[in-house]
Amino acid sequence: MWFSSGVGEDALKFNDFVYVSVRIGIVSTIYLLTSQSVSAEVSQASSEKTVNDTTLNFISNESNVNDLRLASGKLRRTSYALTLNTQTPTSNITQLSDIQIPSTTAKDLLVQSGQTPENNQINTQITAVKLKPTSDGVEIVLETPNGTLQIADTLNDGNTYIADINNAVLALPSGKEFLADKPADGIAAITVTQIESNNKVRVMVTGTSGLPNAKVVNTTNGLTLSLSSPEKADIELTVTAQKRPEDAQDVPFSLTVIPRQQIEDAQINSLIDIANQTPNFNFFPTSAGGTEFSYYSIRGLNNQNFLTAQDSVAFYIDDVPVDYNGFLDLALTDLERVEVLRGPQSTLYGRNSSGGVVNIISREATPKPEVKFAVGYGKYDSRELQFSLNDALVDDKLALRISGFSKSQDGFIENLATGNTIGERSRIAAKAQLLWTPTPDWKISFNSYNTFTNDGNPTYNRRDAPDPFKVNLQVEGFNKLSTNTQAFKIGYNGDAFRATSITARRFTTQENIVPGDIGVQYIDDISSTLWTQELRLQSPETADRFQWLLGAYYESRSFVVDDSQAEFLGFGRFRRTGDDSRQTYAVFGQVDYKPINPLTLFAGLRYESSTAYSDSTYESVSANGSLTPLRPAFQDEKSSSDEFIPRFGLKYQFNPNVMAYATIAKGYRPSGLNYLANSPSTLRFGEEKTWSYEVGLKSAWLDDRLLANLSIFHNDVNNYQVLQFDGSGFFERVNNVDLKATGVEFELTAKPTKGLDLIASIGYVDSRYKNYLNSDTGVDLSDNRVPLAPQFTYNLAAQYRSSGGIFARAELRGYGLTYFDDDNQIKQEPYAVVNARIGYEWEKTGVYLYGNNLFDTRYITSGFFFPPPIPTVGFGDPFTFGVQLRTSL
Q1: For 664-722, how does the pLDDT look when each residue is reduced to its tens digit (9 = 90+)?
Q2: CA gap 451, 526 in Å, rounded
Q3: What are the tens digits of pLDDT across the range 637-654?
Q4: C-alpha closest to that of 797 among 279, 442, 447, 298
Q5: In whole angstroms, how far apart are CA 785 and each of 160, 764, 870?
C-alpha cells in the first residue's frame, strides 16, 4: 500500500520510503566528500526520516531508477534540485515517480562538478568569438549577451599563452570550440575551448617563435584579448629563392639574404655594396672615377670575357634579367631585399646561370599611405636624394608606388694636361609600380624601372704611378648609359596551385670615350633590346610533403654595336661594327619530396635550346675617313646549341634548428659568335659545361639569436669561355679551357642583446686553370689562378641601435691576393677597407654621419698589359665622408 496522509493510492509504502531515504543519504555523504561546490546539511528527524529545508544537488543520468542510458557513448549529466520541507503540506510532496535517482557507480560519484554549465544560471554565456586584425597583431573579442568576463588564471607554457575564464560557458553556433590557424604574423594558432568539469573557458594562443604579448581589456558585454607577436630577437628571414616563401635557413644551398633594414643601415644602393656583404662575391668597377664596365666573380667564375653569349651569373631586378655584363653599374633604390644564390641555378629560374643568381627585389605597392625621402651631402661635392611615395588609388584593390634616386659627385682625379678635375659621376634611377589585386588570389602588376648614368672620364693609370689620382690625358672621355625596363606580371595563388606570368622588355644604350696615354678607344651607340617571357606553374604554398614547379622561358636579345673605334699611335684607327642576336627557349621543373619528416629529396631538369646570329665588319679608317676592310664581312653567321641540365640533392632536418644538405648541379653556357674576330677561325666558341658539388650545414642557436651556416663546394668546368689576350695586350679570341674551383663559405649573424647586431662572413676559393695553352703567345697558363677571384674575402659588421635613438655601425671588408690577368703578373696584395656610420634617430627621422675607406687604403680594381710592359690599372675610391638625413611622413 502507498504511504500517505489519508490518500490511499497516492501513499508510499513505508519500506520503500526507507530504502530510498537510505540511498539518498549514502549518495549525499559521498557527494559532500568529493565536491567542494556543494554544501548540504542533512539532519535526521525521528522515525519519519524528514529532511529539514535543505536543497541538494545531484548528478544524475537522464533515466529513472531502473533505466540507465548512454548517449553517444558519453554519460549525459544533468543537475536537479530536490527540495524537501517539513512545512510543506503532504499533498504537495514530490512524488517518487518524478524524482531522478542519482547513479551510485564509482565512476559517476567521483565526477567533480555537480552541475553542467548550460543549466547553471551563475555561468556567463559566451555567444561569439571574433578576431579583429590590428597593426601589430590581432584582437580576440569574446561576446556575451550580458555581463562581463573575468580571467582567473594565466599560464605561460613555452610559446603558448593560456588564460582561464571561470564561471563561463561557450554557447557558440559551431559548438564548444573555436580554432584559428595563423591569424596574424607571429601567432601560429588560437583556440577557445570549454572545460566542463570546472565551468571554465580556456583561451590558448601559440606564437610561431616566442611567447605572444597579451593585454586584457574588459568590456560591458564580454572581454577583449589584445595580442601581438613577441619582440623579435630571432633573425628569421623569409625569402623566395626557390619561388616560394620560406625561411632562408630552410633553403638547401648557399644563400645570402640582405633584408630591407640592413639595406638602409648599410647604405646599399649598388651591386658593389651587395657584393661587400656576400662571401666569395666580388664586384669591381674597372676604373677610378667614372666607369664604363664592371668586373665581378662568384666562386671563382668571372665575367672578364664580355664577349660571351651569356653571363655566368643571372642578375634579376624585379624578375627582369639584365642582359649584358657591361650594363650592371646601376643605381638601386627602394629595395625590399636582395638574395644572392651561389652555385648553378637552372631548374627554378627563367634565365639559366652557371655561377649563381643575384635577385634584387623592390618594395611592393600597398594600400597604406607612405612618404619617405633622404638627402645627403659629402666630400667631393657629393649630392644624394632619395624618395618614395605609396598610396591606394582604389581601397584594397589598386595601389601605386613610385620612387627615385639621384647621386652625383665631382671628380677627384687631376688631369695635368688640361688642369681639370675629371672622373665625375652621376646616377639617376626612377621606379614605378601599379598593383591591382581584384581578389585575394590574384595579383597583377605593371612595373617600370629607368636609370641614367652620366659619368666623366673613365680613368686608368700606370701601376707604378707615384700618385694614382694624377694623369696626363690630352682627350677627356665620358660614359653615358641609359636603360628603361617595363614588366607586366600576373600572379595567381590558389588552394590547388599557383601560376605566374612575367612579360618584360628592357632597352639599353651606351656611349663612351675611354682615353689613354697612346690612344683612344671610342665606342658609339651600343644598344641592346631584350624581350623575355616566363611562365611558372607550381604547387600551392600549403604543400608540404610534395612540392613541384614547372616553367617555360623565352628570350629574344638583339645586341648592336653601331660604331666601335680604336686609335693607337703609330698603328692607325680601326673600326668595328656588329649585330648579334639570340633566341633562347627553355622548359624547366623541379620536384621536392619528403618521404619521412626529416628528409627532403629534390630533383630538377632543364632543357634549353638557343640560336645565335651575327653580322660584323672590321675596317681601317684613313685620315680622310675612308674605310678599308681588313677581313671579309661576316654575314648571317649562325650558331646553335642545346642541352639537358639536371640538378638534384637532399636535405636532412636533424632538429628544428639544424639542417644539412647536399646538391649536385650542372651549369651550362651556350656556344656563340665573336664579333671581334679577325678571321673565321676565331669567330666561334664552344659550349661551357660545369658540374658543381656542394654540401652545407645551416643552424640556429640561442632561440634564433645566432645563425651559423657553412658550405663547401667544388666546381669542375669544361670548356670555360675565356677572353684570350695576345702579347701586345689586344684581345680578339674566345678560347675554351678547363677550370676547377674549390672553396668554403661561412656566415654568422647574431643578436647577442637588444639593439646589437653582429654580421660576419668569410669565403675562400682556389680557382685555377686545369689546362690552358694561350694559342696567341704559346705560353702554358695551366695551374694559374683565375683572374678577379680573390683567394679569400671576409666581411665583419657590428651595429648598435639604442632605445634612446643612438645608432652606430662599423664595417670591415677584406680581400685576399687577387690577380687581374691570366699570366698572374698583375696582382693586388691582400688589403682591407673600413667603413663607419653614426647617427641619431627619432621616431620617423634620422641624421647620420658616414665615412668610407676611413684609412684611405690604396688598391687596384682592374689591370691590363696594355700597353706593355707596364700594366695599366684602375684604382679604388679614396676616403670619403658625408652626412645624411632620412625621414618619413
Answers
A1: 999 999 999 998 898 898 999 999 999 999 999 999 999 889 999 999 999 999 999 99
A2: 16
A3: 999 999 999 999 999 999
A4: 279
A5: 56, 13, 21
| Mean pLDDT, rounded, for 180-186 | 82
**299: Cβ contacts below 8 Å, ≥ 6 apart:** 280, 342, 343, 355, 356, 713, 715, 741, 743, 765, 767
Residue 116 above 60 pLDDT? no
Cα separation values, 623 from 77, 481, 517, Å? 111, 29, 20
Look at residue 187 in the predicted model and tell me its pLDDT. Answer: 86
Find how far residue 495's CA is from the centre of its chain: 22
Element (H, E) at 108: helix 106-109
Burial class for 249, CB neighbours closer than 10 Å (0-12, 13-18, 19+): buried
Annotate 467-521 with DSSP letters as a single string: STTEE--SS--EEEEEEEEEEEEEEEE-SS-EEEEEEEEEEEEEEEEEE-SSEEE
3 state SS of 264: helix
Residue 662: enclosing H or E segment and its boundaries? strand 658-669
Distance of CA 58 to the CA centre of its chain: 62
Question: 600 forms bridges with which residues in the sheet?
Answer: 651
DSSP string, 277-324: TSTTEEEEESSEES-S-EEEEETTEE---TTSSS-SEEEEETTEE---
Quick one: pLDDT at residue 772? Answer: 95
The number of beta carbons lying within 10 Å of the beta carbon of residue 829 is 10
Length of the chain: 889
HEC letters along 415-481: ECCCCCEECCEEEEEEEEEEEECCCCCEEEEEEEEEEEEEECCEECEECCCCCCCEECCCCCCEEEE
Q: Would you list the DSSP string of 575-600?
A: EEEEEEEEEEEEEEEEEEEEEETTEE
By the 8 A CB rule, do 190 and 205 touch?
A: yes
| Cell digits of residue 633 | 664581312
Contact 665, 647 (CB under 8 A): yes
**C-alpha–C-alpha distance, residues 606 and 587, integer Å:** 6
Beta pairing class for 413-415 and 470-471: parallel
Residue 735 DSSP code = E
Q: pLDDT digit string (tens) for 587-616?
A: 999 999 999 999 999 999 999 999 999 999
| DSSP label at residue 97 | G
Question: CA neighbours within 13 Å on the CB side: how many for 795?
Answer: 23
pLDDT band for 520, please (50, 70, 90 cuts): low
**Long-range CB contacts (within 8 A, 24+) of 5-13:** 5/90, 5/91, 7/91, 10/95, 12/96
695-714 burial, b at 16+ Cβ within 10 Å, e below that, comes to ebebbbeeebebbbbbbbbe
156: cell is 605561460
How far apart are alpha carbons 810 and 852 in whole angstroms? 10
Is 610 within 8 Å of 582 (Cβ atoms)?
A: yes
Distance (Å, rounded) from C-alpha 662 to C-alpha 390? 42
> Could you tell me the pTM of the whole model?
0.76
Q: Burial, 622: exposed, middle or buried (Cβ in 10 Å; 0-12, 13-18, 19+)?
A: exposed
3-class SS of residue 274: helix
pLDDT tens per residue, range 800-852: 999 899 999 999 999 999 999 999 999 999 999 999 999 999 989 999 999 99
- Give residue 90's Cα distance to chain centre: 83
Q: What 3-state DSSP class applies to 169?
A: strand
Q: What cell does 509 get? A: 644604350
H helix runs in 2-81, sequence order: 14-34
